[in-house]
Design goal:
By secondary structure, the protein is mostly helical. The protein is built from 2 helices and no strands. Helices cover 78% and strands 0% of the residues.
């Protein structure tokens, strides 16, 4: 892993953790029944992390 990838990882992990509750709440609004399963919550986190990682990797030191 390069230094840029490590930095993007750290930023993406922090961002995904900080926004997880809001992302889960948004996902619940789009459901027609019940709460999200653990797997669904993990998928929300993974998607948010992956998108954030790509964003921060492209932005480099600009963000």
């Amino acid at each position: 892993m390069t230094d840029d990838e490590k930095l993007a990882h750290d930023k993406a992990l922090a961002f995904a953790q900080a926004t997880l509750l809001d992302e889960i709440a948004d996902a619940k609004k789009n459901r027609t029944h019940g709460n999200l399963s653990i797997r669904e919550k993990a998928n929300v986190f993974n998607y948010n992390y992956a998108e954030s990682f790509n964003y921060f990797l492209q932005e480099g030191n600009n963000y």
